[in-house]
Design a protein that fits this description.
Elements: E1 5-8, H1 12-24, E2 28-33, H2 42-45, E3 48-51, H3 66-69, H4 71-81, E4 85-87, H5 97-105, E5 109-110, H6 115-122, H7 124-134, H8 149-159, E6 163-167, E7 177-179, H9 185-200, E8 205-209, E9 214-223, E10 229-241, E11 244-250, H10 257-273, E12 278-287, E13 293-299, H11 306-313, H12 317-325, E14 348-355, E15 357-358, E16 364-365, E17 368-369, E18 372-374, E19 381-385, E20 393-394, E21 401-409, H13 412-425, E22 427-429, H14 435-442, H15 445-448, H16 472-486, H17 517-524, H18 526-535, E23 540-543, H19 545-554, H20 560-573, E24 579-584, H21 587-595, H22 599-609, E25 614-619, H23 632-645, E26 649-652, H24 663-671, E27 675-681, H25 696-708, E28 713-718, H26 725-738, E29 743-747, H27 754-763, E30 768-771, H28 785-791, H29 803-818, H30 834-837, H31 841-853, H32 860-873, H33 883-896, H34 901-905, H35 915-922, H36 934-941, H37 960-971, H38 977-985, H39 987-1000, H40 1008-1013, E31 1020-1026, E32 1029-1038, E33 1046-1053, E34 1056-1063, E35 1085-1087, E36 1092-1097, E37 1104-1105, E38 1110-1116, E39 1119-1124, E40 1129-1134, ...
Helix pairs in contact: 5-6, 6-7, 13-14, 17-18, 19-31, 20-22, 20-29, 23-24, 23-38, 25-26, 26-27, 31-33, 32-33, 38-39
Length: 1153
Amino acid sequence: MSISKILVANRSEIAIRVFRAANELGIKTVAIWAEEDKLALHRFKADESYQVGRGPHLERDLGPIESYLSIDEVIRVAKLSGADAIHPGYGLLSESPEFADACAENGIIFIGPKPETMRRLGNKVAARNLAIEIGVPVVPATEPLPDDMKEVERLADEVGYPIMLKASWGGGGRGMRAIRAKEDLAREVTEAKREAKAAFGKDEVYLEKLIERARHVEVQVLGDTHGNAVHLFERDCSIQRRNQKVVERAPAPYLDAGQREELSGYALKIAEATNYIGAGTVEFLMDADTGKFYFIEVNPRIQVEHTVSEEVTGIDIVKAQIHILDGFAIGSPESGVPAQADIKLNGHALQCRITTEDPEQNFIPDYGRITAYRGATGFGIRLDGGTAYSGAVITRFYDPLLEKVTAWAPTPEETIQRMDRALREFRIRGVATNLTFLEAIITHPKFRDNSYTTKFIDNTPELFTQVKRKDRATKLLTYLADVTVNGHPETRDRPRPAEDAAPPRVPHVDLPVVDGTKQKLDELGPEKFGEWMRAEKRVLMTDTTMRDGHQSLLATRMRTDDIVKIAGTYARALPQLLSLECWGGATFDVAMRFLTEDPWERLDKIRHNAPNLLLQMLLRGANGVGYKNYPDNVVKYYVRQAAAGGIDLFRVFDCLNWVENMRVSMDAVREENKLCEATICYTGDILNSARPKYDLKYYTDLAAELEKAGAHIIAVKDMAGLLKPAAATQLFKALRDATDLPIHFHTHDTSGISAATVLAAVDAGVDAVDAAMDALSGNTSQPCLGSIVEALRGHERDPGLDPEWIRRISFYWEAVRNQYAAFESDLKGPASEVYLHEMPGGQFTNLKEQARSLGLETRWHEVAQAYADANQMFGDIVKVTPSSKVVGDMALMMVSQDLTVADVESPSKDVSFPDSVVSMMRGDLGQPPSGWPEDLQKKVLKGEKAYTDRPGSLLADADLDAERKEIETKLEREVSDFEFASYLMYPKVFTDYAVLSETYGPVSTLPTPAYFYGLDVGDEMFIEIEQGKTLVVRNLATGETDDKGMVTVFFELNGQPRRVKVPDRIHGASAAAARQKVDPTNEAHVGAPMPGVISTVAVAGGQEVKAGDVLVSIEAMKMETAIHAERDGKIGDVLVKAGDQIDAKDLIVVYEG
């Protein structure tokens, strides 16, 4: 009687594979499913499906694996559905002779070998004895191990270490452990027995000699009910991890014809000696050094990797199984299997198993919903999948296999290339996968030249260096969902941009990029470039819009996207510029801190778009781009990276004009062969005889000292805009007499008359001046670039810039500025108050932000007066970051606590000074010209000793290797040299940024309105994540807050639906309650290596443990893993109990101390 209905006693991929074969044969199909598999795809691929493991006929509900292992349940469904045959697939009951018996007893055809064959071959010890009987070579091994551990030790010594421990009834790599030392034997045997019992229902294990340089090669055999047996050649399965196959090939590319014949002959001997029926696999080890084969075992079932044999022989093995059990003889057309002589190899096939194992987390199986799935197809690619589609739910209960990809091509090399293409084509989001790990394997030279062994993965650490896909789209959607639901913390409750404002449009410029100052520097070198500047008749101009312009107006919140887009226009339309000041200073840390952007990426993109202009940065001398002193080698390292990243001109200053504190930075810049622009910070008023501290001689002496220290250019940095036109005439004439170096002037327009000062400086012989593009000029920013250019048009020192292009670029900045309405200060016009408080432009807007956050916004004029008072109290100092910040901190404290100067200075009134004030008075920022006021310094330091040495000279060099190791351990990845420089400057800021960047992706690519305000329902936008790669995102809907405080946002990404859940923090929710995560740097923490269920807890708080003791056991994906103590110690706290569900990296045990 022909088979008419097949029940598949399995799940997922192999069940679907059998259904497809049966369907093509016109045979009806039946699926079974456990409760935990109710959404699995195989359930819907069959003609009928029935639940197992639940129902009133059972005394209790069965577990997720137990349901499929219940012979009674499977037979019940077979009878209920009228199935006349059962296909067991692989794993689960496929190797159970009791199951085959039960089928026979109930008159159901078992599509597999006879029970007696299964008993003989399924038990590896019995199979080994058979091989010895018929002359097939075997690896030295033991009988099943007794319970007596002393006898086990004797047997192990007899075989000889290293040895492999195996489960007699095992498969799929479970129950297999390598043992290299006697002291590990007892523990490994105990755990292997428990694992074997849980997985296979039997705890029988044995020992086998371990061949260190082995290849795993297996032969596919088919036998019929008429005594015929054939082989379908061999498969190479040497690429394994934890004895689990990862990549399989057919044929084995390293075998010659003689070896292939020898190997196939051994396999047929086994099949013929057992009258084998159906599909089976005879597995061998091949010693890579000797070429000898050793029989391992027979798998009396179809294998996961059967696909590669099908591809190279053209034989459908599943159909053949069905035909054979239908009674057809091999060699007949009805069987689908030709006679041996007619089975030929055609080309090469390669299979990769795509799983949800995370290579970054030690292959911990991931679970959750697949939010997006895009498969790979095309010529020569075959997919055999389970629950692999958008929206599919991957549970923690089953094998992590998602999909098998098989590539076929005429040659091994083309097969590898085809597979590589297919793997790169896949997009699977929502769960971790091993896709990039598979790519690394098949493209590795050892894989391509066939020199690999079974230890290839273990011995090739470079496979793990690039195991993560970027998944930028998913991360960006997560960010957009979060900011749409919760708003951005920097813009919440602040003015929004005008709705009807025109969006920024980069002006089209049809001009080539011509050589500019960058090429001039490369040609001349720094010294000669300085001479060229001095010889230029025209005044040279620096545009500050990309750094100080927006810093001074918008509290440094300008984003990379807006800056980079216009850089190319500057390069083409204004190539006569001296430089673009675009980096460093306060913008560096703020990019990471508030904008989740990498400042190095900003620099790289500006350099790429403006290759012909000098890029200029602000460097705070010994403070780098930070607010404290750093060891000299840290400053040098930072300067080296900045130079490598694209900076040409370093404006180096010290916040107290202390040249001694600038030397390390200046020397570092000279070592990199870049322009060192040493800076004099202007303060006071040289026209005011009542303030003789900062007179002309002070400034000319400084210029001479800086020239001697190695400056290429002298900058005068008038941070507050205090230099008046008449004073500028005197100052620059005096400086012109004091030095032959070019002079570069920088000022701010807080007073409203700085343009007049700039023009006076030009007339007095200054070589270069700073200005901001019109739309971002004025007030606390620089004077207006367009107006200065117009004022000098026709002048002998005309800078030669095109006013029309200045206006066009300004229109762009004007539209950009509208997007930052939340950060505008309320300064409506010029303020002569600047001559009172002498506050730098950038400090002005930042201090206003600080005052706002402290609730002092309405008392701003008091803050300004307190700033002036604090400056005089400190001895009338130069005020520029970080010294200006110290004065600001003091002013805010005085206003918030209603303190007067008398209160602060009074010996009888105790004052808790800000840390920054204590640090400055101690000497951490260096020394002002006449030292610190002694009485105030004494009161601030409260007995602590001050010092007058250069702070950096007292700091030991940082151990850069140790620092790098620390941050890489914390982030669990390598950091680039640029990232490391960020970390050295701002350890916490960079670490926080790196974590957020990993969560949210490249947010710098988002349009600014979307970054700050999200995406309204119905809105659509384009996101260019890199050149030539654009995402189209639409917000379809936003759900209500659920009972866990989460909101679902429904997007459309490139036309495909995607949904993202985020916590509704606005209404007091946070992310769903989660266990504390392990801190990898804390030795007292013990974390879960994988998600799963706690099966046993072996320790309690207060218990003493020894290294190697079991702490807890975790059961997941059919595998039990014991967590051992890595050191002796006392347990402080156990955070889990048996039955708890846990995620990877959850903190489970804490040591005391």
